Amino acid sequence: MTLRSTSSATDAKRGGDREADPLGPDSLTWKYFGDLRTGMLGVWIGAIQNMYPELGAGVEDHSILLREPLQRVARSVYPIMGVVYDGDRAAQTGAQIKSYHNTIKGVDGEGRRYHALNPETFYWAHATFFMLIIKTAEYFCGGLTEAEKRQLFDEHVQWYRMYGMSMRPVPNSWEEFCEYWDAKCRDELEINRATLDIFSIRIPKPWFVLMPTPIWDQLFKPMVGAQRWIAAGLFDPAVREKAGMRWTPGDEVLLRIFGKLVELAFVAVPDEIRLHPRALSAYRRAQGKLPENAPLVEAPGFMAPPRDRHGLPMHYVPPRKSLLDRAGSLVHTTFSLTGLRRPARGARDRSGKAA
């Protein structure tokens, strides 16, 4: 069952014709999306996104993920996080991300036309980020109640409005979303070249890492292998079958035990490490520790795309910083990692202050 509406009334009903309100520190999305544990699902989200035919075709024809996977993912996460954490500037960040997709279009190997701004395709990518939160929370953060899943669904709709896209592909409820997700996994996802590339991905050593390449490779091989195993466990059975992956009841038990160990270990992880820098700065703005108009945290300059790709509209290029700015960032990061400015853990009220 594919849930889609062709009437303009649907957009209006979901608020597509009014100014969107950004998410805030009282949301569950703020609690989970910026958490480091989402990184354990890197292979899962890369593969499940690319299995969507139009999205996979765009990656095959336009992405340089295999050329510099670490830098590509690291820098892209900054604006993606911003659509959740940038407050009154979130819609501007959403428009920025949307603009990167204007020129990503073409015809795939089956003769099917694609465009990254096709509403169905763009929403699928967003749906995978929503499910990233659901699966991270369920497996590695202690689980979710049904009420929390419904709250996260409502928040993902509010979050999606930040992009200024058509709301027509968006299901009307958590129950309808589950039907949408099941139908996509069962009937539309496919194992294509872009997906296979994720399964077999190798992480080349970045130029700025001062480590012998053989040692780097030995560090990352088991890490990628572990992520493939996690991905197999988190795939829906229909997707796992398409991918030819084996998953046993024993694997499920091991994954649940591993998830519980991760949950317990993260109790002692400070927010400066646990949270993405864009999320951490958002909490500090909400708590009054930073001005509301403080500059948004951007990706480090060394994560920029290769020089031959600068100027292409599909790339986010971190702004250059002066030597003074970089020195200040270094000092700030050093003090942050000591925990001297660690924000309070636990629940936060609507003002962003610790409860």
TrEMBL record:
> Which Pfam families does the UniProt record give?
MPAB_Lcp_cat
- GO molecular-function term, one example from the UniProt record: oxidoreductase activity
Q: Which residues form the ER-bound oxygenase mpaB/mpaB'/Rubber oxygenase catalytic domain?
A: 30-262
Instruction: State where composition is biased (Polar residues).
Output: 1-10
- Name the residue ranges with Basic and acidic residues bias: 11-21
Annotated region (Disordered), positions in chain: 1-22
Q: Which domain of life is it from?
A: Bacteria
The record ties this protein, via PANTHER family, to: BLR2777 PROTEIN, ER-BOUND OXYGENASE MPAB_MPAB'_RUBBER OXYGENASE CATALYTIC DOMAIN-CONTAINING PROTEIN
Q: What is this protein called?
A: ER-bound oxygenase mpaB/mpaB'/Rubber oxygenase catalytic domain-containing protein
Which organism does this sequence originate in? Mycolicibacterium rhodesiae (strain NBB3)
